[in-house]
Specification:
Length: 181
Amino acid sequence: MLCAVDEPLATAWLGVADGRSGVEVHRGSVLDIVAEAVVSPANSSGWMRTGMDAVYARAFPNVEAHVRSAVLALHGGELPVGEALVVPTGEPQPEWLISAPTLRSAGEHLPADTVHPYLAARAVLRLWRDGRLDDGRPVRAAVRTIAMPGLGTGVGGVAPETCARQVAAAWDEVFSSLPRR
């Protein structure tokens, strides 16, 4: 579920959903819909103090501590852009938060030619397709709907069209079969 609170991103998301089975657009907050997981377009350290991350930190009071602990334990304190991890929100719905950094540092402004939205989206989709929860269950068995806000479109300054084009490319890469030789 691609979510947008502003019209330029909602319009850009429509191009991603068009012709891609399983992709829908929601005009409104990720917190307005029923989903098992939400995507946090975080920074690599896991601090959740600005943008969409701050919204999540207010909605799920313990989630920043879960993200920071996982980043420290599993990635030595820095979750690289292009990687993702899943942590519990501490709430029944959504139960999970997928942290997928679009910024290395909090407050970073991305250049116009960035590929960070693509890398973050690809990490989220690969995690859903191939990842496992701490109890060993496949992520895709516990998560049927993922609510995704714009990736880098807030604090990072990425244009909605750029984000949408890159999310579409990530979707196509992760869910398209590789040609056989």
